[in-house]
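Much of our argument rests on the idea that a fold can be written as discrete symbols. This step matters because it turns folding into a mapping between discrete strings. The record that follows shows the chain in one-letter code together with its fold in token form.
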Amino acid sequence: MISYLPVFLAFGLMFFAVPVPVCLLAGTLLYFGVINPSLPITSVFQNIVTQSMSTSMMAAPFFILAGSIMNYAGITGKLLDMCDCLLGHKEGGLAYINVLLSTLNGGMCGSANADAALQCKLLVPEMEKKGYPRPFCTAVTAASSLITPIIPPGVPLILYGIMTGVSVGKMWVAGYVPGIMLCIGMMIVCYIYAHKYHWKSARETRATAKELVQAIMKCFWALLIPIFMIVGLRSGLFTATEGGTVLIILAVLIGIIYRSLKFEHFKPIMIDAFRATANVMLIIVSACGFSMYLSWERIPHMMAEWMMAVSSSKYMFILLSQLIVFILGMFLDGTALLLILTPLFYPIAQSYGIDLIQFGMIMLVNLYCGCLTPPFGTLMYVTCNLTDVSIPQFCKYGWAFVVVMLTVCLIMAIFPGIPTFLPNLVYGA
């Protein structure tokens, strides 16, 4: 029983709002420093640093920096104009624009927090002017931003691919279909609310064909980025890590083409990228240490035996594993949870013959449901703080978007061909 104390300590600290990396490192230190000091603590940290400094892990900071450059390169504004031309004339148009912009932004920055923060400043004030309730604006902004890490080049897709040995390129391609499904599902929710409350459109008349073509041409180069990245990985032109550096170069070039990237942007870009990278890498380092403790105590092995004993079929395993993911997602940061649970679950998924791409996409979408749910949904708190909305007010509208995400998970669980169709088409079955 004493060997489980690090788990209780880590989760106990989380309930007191202690940062996730600190919680995981505390559990690791308790085990290797007190419970089982047979391995020198210096060796433990050496092992942790070695794992986190692998070439594959370097992909994360590169893509984070590329996303930061994109935010200053004027791409979002041009994508917003295009979305306005497509959907602005419809009743509740700004709600549709909010969802579509996040979907398109996914191919640019891959960060839910960055997307949510940007849209809270950019769209929420405009939506309020048109009569949208602020709690709804907050809920749709938080929910739609969760599409962003599902659409390539989302960092979670990279991390999952690295941990399971699945091609990062395949994970990127696989992200498009669930991302589009989430986009459509959330737009249906917006449609229901818009027609119920008769919210105003963003523009009086439908955009002309000329206006639409001009809007598309203005963001043409930005729209080509996801396609170029997929083609580059598929053809072997570059690896995922090298792709991060390629994306940085492309982001700078696009910023120059649009004449929106200035020299004075260099400092805030680096500060934003450094903060985001530090946050992600701290989680990776702490999760590596905690995973090391779990391996030493053979907890993954015991959990696998237990789950296979109670799971009579692969569908029962998917249901049970995703229930665990959903509940823990209410308390833990999505990236940390991904790094902890993936090594536990993917070998069991393999033993049941479940495609790892299918399992990964179900798990990733489910993970982000927790970001919208009390008591500790991270993105819920971020957006509510930015817009000064209470949690009960948020939940009044947010529950519908959680239902959409869980429905997408269910569809992918029942029909494995949905998340695997594109990877099989592009890479071959």
